[in-house]
Amino acid sequence: MKRVAALVVALALIGVTTWLVWPSAPEVRGQDQKITVVDGPADDQRVELDTTFFPPPDGGKAPVVLLAHGFGGSKQSMRDQAIRLAQEGYAVLTWSARGFGRSTGQIALNSPDYEVKDVKQLIDWLAERPEVQLDASGDPRVGIAGGSYGGAIALMTAAFDQRVDAIVPQITWSDLADALFPNAATTTQTTAQSTAQATTEAEAESGADSPAAPEAGAASGVFKRMWAGIFFGQGVSLDASSLLGPREAAGPLTPQQARCGRFLPEICDIYQDVAEDGRATQEAIALLRKSSPVTVADRIKAPTLLIQGQRDSLFPLSHADANAKAIAAAGTPVSLAWFDGGHDGGNGEADWLFEQSSAWFARYLKGEGSGAPPVSAFTVTRDGGRDPGTRQRIRLHPEAGSYPGLGGTDTTTVELAGPEQNIVNPPGGAPASISTVPGIGGLLGGQGNGGVSIDMPGQSAAFESRPLTAPLQLTGSPSITVRVTGEGEATLFAKLYDVAEGNQLPTLPAGLVAPVRVTIPEGAGSTEATIALPAVDHRFAVGHRLRLVVTTTDMGFATPAAPATYQVSLASPALTVPTVRTLAAAPTGVAWWVWAMPLASIVVAAVLLATGRTPARLRRRPVRASATEPASIPATLEPGVPNTTPASPPNGKPATPTATTPNGQSPDAASATGTAKDSPSDVAAVVNGSSAEAAPVTSVDTAVVASTDVPLEITGLTKAYRNGELAVDGLSFRVEKGQVLGLLGPNGAGKTTTMRMMMGLIHPDDGEIRIFGEPVTPGAPVLSRLGSFVEGPGFLPHLSGRDNIELYWAATGRPVADAHFDEALEIAGLGKALERAVRTYSQGMRQRLAIAQAMLGLPDLLVLDEPTNGLDPPQIREMREVLKRYARDGRTVIVSSHMLAEVEQTCSHVVVMQRGRLVSTGPVSQLLSSAAVADGHGPRLEDVFLDLIGDKA
Question: Whole-prediction pTM value?
């Protein structure tokens, strides 16, 4: 023990010393100040911007980064990111844009006449700071980053001020008019119903067979009503972080503020007109496009990293695509990243996004020789399942050397089928279908995924593919051509679902929908529209179907109030699905703990050897006899010397040299010597709260007594929590071959702790567990004869069911022929679902796969925790027969369950625990025979159980 204590002290000293001498991040101090700028079309408006400047903490001159906040936020939203950048050696400036936070002025939507002029003057101010590195007089080395509203100002400023050296815009827009009035119908073609002349005139009028111009698209677009209401309303925040802090005190609203927040009056007036009838006016389009990067992107010379969210119904991936193409056309370096986040929630990947931004600025602000890691031309975040060690979600970031666009590098054609279908637009547009609820994901802390999509009956037409025979990775914007029959103008919404087998709800990737507005010329009768479906990155698994749904309503958009009826059919069954074959996951290497854990194990083993600890199987210990084992199972102080002191039971009363059976009779002499005619587990230690008395203790080596034919023998098992409370308290029982034993007890009884000790996952404080005569220790060879399923299944969700269990068996290092895959999978009964990814499984399917995994190798001892959880009644009955049949073949099954009626029908024996102690053990039939008849019915295990734990109502 002295050596152990010395080692602990040495390790503590090393840890404290390391903590004291380890270099900490430099302290960063912000300098708050108001900077006055002049803006407006006539340069006659004075605005005070509330700013904070963070000098580089190590002194000297450094490149500077401006951090712009999102809509509804302020400079406080960017403080943490500013401190991290300053610690990396940058000067940083944050500010509250005009109309936000403590800055004066009114919101002008990042207009070149207002916000852009403000930022240019902030750059002028930075050029005078002694801490800022200059490229020339009045020209600081400067980068700009920001999300949403802040991302747009980064793009707009870079277009109007060539001093900007690098930008990182996130989740922002390309064309604000298109964002608020989208139309996914890229081409239209009318079908003649009268004469060829009518068709020709209709095509000429609608611009058939050619993409609509951006202005025409917005003019005929569908109003994104809910997002526009959030954007232009009372200044509701699109920046979730601004909702977490304290609200700044404000006086009563003026009539103008109550009407439209802090927007310029002319912007407020235009929004009021548009929101009333849901149609874009030319004045509104001109205003919105004036604040749109796409109109000036060809002027941007600053290298641009565009980061766009995959879960974003406000500014979807198509906006980053448009910005990328427009900027790259001028020869400017551009990279794109699609991450797990956006205005509709997701993980957000804050650390990964910071790393990407930091690497981009290091390259273009600090220089190529800075050693900054390269940023790929195109990166996508994908789900990589869960880490088997930490159980944390893994996110993969496959990369490509060039950006393929939304059309991908290749395309796959999937055939859809379905008849022409009638759909109606309900009066008033209600009730409306749901694709996603705008803003909810962000307001829920960034973890939402838009919720469940709902298509109202009678309002939707569906077309579906056959089950996929191979996985399909969609990366980009699929397209399909549909025919719409009816009269006048039709407002429709198209979405592409992932449909799995079984009772799972269809999945709408990212909750995104493509709004479509088409006009059916008079006399034509119908029109064809090629729809660009939302751009997503989504993997369709084997056996899944693709389902195209076209609806007349969507909660997030404005729809016509007048009732109407249309017929929708497929003009072509071919759904074009883009793929990107060049995407490859970057090597991540092996986690550090994979190497550290074996080294730590070697160190621990060396310490144990050095301190003279003896393996459990060579130790002799006193063992308290119970009625569940031979009464003479002993312990010894010294070999061959009897111990004449009787053991004391838990209640502290003196023990007598006899054990009692449920009827009070003493067992025969054969039982006392370990050669009982009946199984020792048939003897109940405690019934109806009466404790059995312990046998005397004699001197015998426990290794001599243990039998290699006994599947499980637990003796004096004890385990305490850190606070000293006993989770398992002197537990002893024995299980024989051919038994199905139910391990029962209320929550907190110690059942799971006991099972974990059976498997060698945790070490008991006292007592012993033997499986087939061998003591259980971590990694003991005898554990290969035990199959277990405790505390829920742990599968890699991106792998199929078959791949999961094959990988599990391969990890054991045992021959494939010993696995008996066919027998185990027959028990699972999953059929074709075995080839699907586990993430698509229901709870019951996961449960059945977990039980099949536990049965791999047909172990002699099977331990299952709540095996029927999630199963339906037919599956429960089948599982019951499987377990009974498994035991009849000469094996042993232990089942922990709260479903007492099922235990009664499945188990031959039970062990009842409470507060870590053994309450009763014996055959189910014997326990039931001891119970009184209640309410005219025969005894039930539930009644016996409640009596035993003292909870009978």
Answer: 0.62
